[in-house]
Amino acid sequence: LSILLILLVPAHTTRSPDCGGILTPSGLRYLAEVSKPHAESVLRKDLMASPAPDPSPTSPSSRSQIVSVKVDKFSLTLIPDTGMRLSIEVDLGFTSGPSTTKEMRLSILADLHVEMNPEGNLELVTSDCKPTLEEVQSTEEMDSKSSGSDVDKQINVEKICLEVSKLLLFPNERLMSLAAPFPITPNCQVQYLPLAAPMYSEQGIIISLQTTFQVAGTVIPLPVSPVPFSMPEPARSSPSHLILALSEHFYTSLFSALEQSGALNVSLLSSLTTATLAERITQQMGSLFQEDLPVVIQAVSRSSPRVVLEEDKAIVELFLTAQIGTRSSLFQSFLSVNVDVTARLHFSVVDTRMIISVAAVEDIELSLATSDVGPILAALLEELFLPTIREEVPAQINAVLRQGVFLPHIASFTYTDVNITIHKDYVLIPCNLQLEARTR
């Protein structure tokens, strides 16, 4: 058995975070704010539902009925090292006849935390719940014992506590949406998997995530992170609702997934033709082609891309092999060139997607990959092909990335007031949450 366990352990120990987020106390306050109308709607539906008919035929009009439900207070606060505390105060209006009204206050104090269930999804659970009910005012004296009994029949306290987490706008269906696969390209998807239950600090609720990529429906192996990533906590409280952090390894994995999916393979139409090329590269070119044809460059990755993050700077290094040739009915290559591109990256966020673009090419190196047509000077290669590669490679990569890469998020919420900062080894994204208008 011990040998079997040893064999099984590596499958789990290789999991390590490469990104994460901190939901701040400000974010909790916002979630409470937008959950208040939702909670009132749920409580109104539950508490004002028609009760079962009274089996006693005597004085049916004396039964207390809940005629109004108004949430006066709804707050969600952080308890470091433990979880969250939900505090709700609900004003209830009762009537037991045409001229008898009664107002009572239902107070609910519940402790909540997020666990990871056996399926690997995050789940909001209630660890403690204390409801209290007290009278506020009445239009006439009523028998407190009998009226209290009627109220108890109307309010199922145990049910309220059992489902108190549903009063928030991020019940478990939305938490499960965090781990849903999101498309990047038609055949490449990204998925963020929680590694453990969140941790609770004074700065907020810390969630660590591991990214996986699928190409054509199959999870692909990615480079191993050389440095374990941990969610950087801010030194002081942040006014933002949420702070996302994406590691350098995340971006390298993203470009590696795109490379394995074939999305970084590019086909470039040069401004040269075989005739103009023959004027510069010996007479051998003229003997290869009987007619003047446009020169085409087809570039594919020869090794995995690499992203490097420094303070206020992000660059991607692409290692390509370019086949230079012509295309009539079929592509015919006559020269192979290694192309190493170092380009600067720009990041922005729209809704819940990070838009990554190649902002500027900082360096390109060309070198002969084969000796198909004999030695060619590097300076001549650069003169002939560098302008096309410099312009077209970033343009085609940007076309692939134009739709953006979905960031970790839960359904019905988008990101606003985004401020992106690039640090050594990671990108920090403080932002605010915005509930989508169509959500009821």
Automatic annotation (TrEMBL):
SUPFAM superfamilies, alphabetized: Bactericidal permeability-increasing protein, BPI
Annotated InterPro entries: Bactericidal_perm-incr_a/b_dom (IPR017943), BPI_fold-BPI/LBP (IPR051660), Lipid-bd_serum_glycop_C (IPR001124)
Domain Lipid-binding serum glycoprotein C-terminal per the UniProt entry, residue ranges: 236-431
Keywords: Signal
GO molecular function: lipid binding
Segment forming the signal sequence: 1-16
Transmembrane region(s): none
Superkingdom of the organism of origin: Eukaryota
Pfam families the record matches: LBP_BPI_CETP_C
PANTHER family assigned to the protein according to its UniProt record, in alphabetical order: BPI FOLD-CONTAINING FAMILY B MEMBER 4, BPI FOLD-CONTAINING FAMILY B MEMBER 4-RELATED
Annotated protein name in UniProt: TENP protein
Organism: Pomatorhinus ruficollis
Native organism taxonomy: Eukaryota, Metazoa, Chordata, Craniata, Vertebrata
Encoding gene, per UniProt annotation: Tenp
